[in-house]
Amino acid sequence: MTSPASDLPPLSGRSFAVLRELMVERQIAARGVHDPRVLAAMRKVPREAFLPEPMRDLAYEDAPVPIAAEQTMSQPYIVALMVEALLLQGGDNVLEIGAGSGYAAAVLAEIAGHVTTVERIAALADAAATRLAALGYGDVDVHRGDGTRGWPAAAPYDAIVVAAGGPQVPESLKAQLKIGGRLVMPVGADQHAQQLVRLTRLGEADFKREHLGDVRFVPLLGAEGWQQPEPAGRTARDRDDPR
Ligand code: SAH
Question: Considering only CA atoms, which of 101, 124, 96, 100 is closest in space to residue 112?
Answer without folding.
Answer: 96
